[in-house]
Design goal:
- By secondary structure, this protein is an alpha/beta fold.
- The protein folds into 2 domains: 210 residues, Rossmann fold; 95 residues, Rossmann fold, CATH 3.40.50.1100.
- The protein is built from 14 helices and 10 strands.
- The strands form 2 sheets. Strands 1-2-10-7-8-9 form a 6-stranded mixed beta sheet.
- Helix 5 links the parallel strand 4 and strand 5.
- The chain is globular and about 55 Å long.
């Protein structure tokens, strides 16, 4: 394993610099009110599923690739992904004329696999456990180049943090911001911006009941492994553990994590589609499900819809059988 620089908080100066650096690559995504027709919380959706790769990962990937030294670019880049980080790095690498390899979790949806391939990435499929270990080792047999970690990367997190700047500018009265926890790079980035500019805002994670190491870590006040981990359609979030370095990044910034059921996620996917006519993948609907649960307060709550990369047939299978929402709306 390579020697890593100590974890440090992303500064506001780095976040503002990242915003300028990636301005021509990413979209300033809209913040829209979720008119769910209930007496429940006031919820706003930060629609990161409308990015060119339909996921927030482009922000971090574009900044990380832009920050590479010439000798690092010359080696090409590689990353590990269930699909969204891979698309982000592949998109940024193609724009920079850099070869890209993605070690893909073999259960990744075919939609994400096809899109990474269309972006010019060379794909290497591997089991989840091997990919998760490779993220810790920062190496994978037979794969060479400059590694861009999909979440534990300072420059990647600075790019993700630009989401926080936009939220504050568009809704300065927000009381809480909820974002999915996978590796922790999104919520660490958003939290870094919010803690510096609006420390009164609650910053909450969202995880599925089948993969909630974040909630376990906050309960124990230390990074935990989630022993009951199960694969699900929420493939873009919910890891088997919180890496110690990511716990350092989240601790003192993130207030906790809300655990939701898979049925609540499915209901949130349907509600977002019905009310806003946009598609959220499982991980993208996690924050919405957490906000609808009432556990994030009365609002205004910003739920970050982190991605929308899901096969349409799979999306229909998940949401069409639901006749009644699991939420009281």
């Amino acid at each position: 394993m390579p020697t890593l620089s100590p974890v440090r908080q992303v500064s506001l100066e780095e976040i503002y610099a990242a915003r300028e650096r990636i301005r021509g690559v990413v979209l300033r995504t809209p913040l829209v009110r979720l008119l769910h027709g209930a007496k429940g919380p006031e919820i706003w959706l930060k629609l990161e599923n409308l990015q060119p790769i339909n996921a927030f990962k482009l922000r971090g990937a574009a900044n990380a690739v832009a920050m590479l030294a010439p000798e690092e670019r010359a080696r090409g880049v590689w990353t590990i992904s269930a699909g969204n980080a891979g698309q982000g790095v592949a998109y940024a690498a193609r724009s920079a004329g850099i070869p890209c390899t993605v070690v893909v979790i073999e259960t990744a949806p075919e939609t994400k696999i096809e899109r990474m391939r269309d972006l010019g990435a060379h794909l290497v499929k591997a089991p989840f456990d091997a990919c998760w270990q490779a993220m810790d080792d920062r190496s994978f047999p037979g794969v060479e180049g400059t590694f861009i970690h999909p979440f534990d990367d300072h420059d990647f997190i600075a790019g993700n943090a630009t989401v926080g700047l936009e939220i504050l500018e568009d809704l300065p009265g927000a009381k809480a911001v909820v974002a999915a926890i996978g590796g922790g790079g999104l919520i660490s980035g958003i939290g870094s911006a919010l803690r510096a500019l609006a420390p009164e805002i609650r910053i909450l994670g969202a995880e599925p009941e089948t993969a909630a190491p974040g909630a376990a870590s906050f309960a124990a006040d230390s990074p935990q492994v989630f022993e009951r981990w199960q694969a699900s359609f929420v493939d873009g979030a919910g890891g088997k553990s919180i890496f110690p370095r990511m716990w350092e990044r989240m601790h003192g910034i993130v207030d906790g994590s809300i655990v939701v059921s898979l049925d609540e996620v499915r209901s949130a996917m349907r509600i977002v589609a019905e009310k806003t006519r946009v598609i959220a993948e499982g991980a993208g609907a996690l924050a919405v499900a957490a906000a609808l649960s009432g556990k994030a307060g009365d609002g205004p709550i910003v739920a970050v819809v982190s991605g929308g990369n899901i096969d349409l047939k799979k999306f229909a299978e998940l949401v069409v059988p639901i006749q009644h929402s699991t939420f009281n709306i």
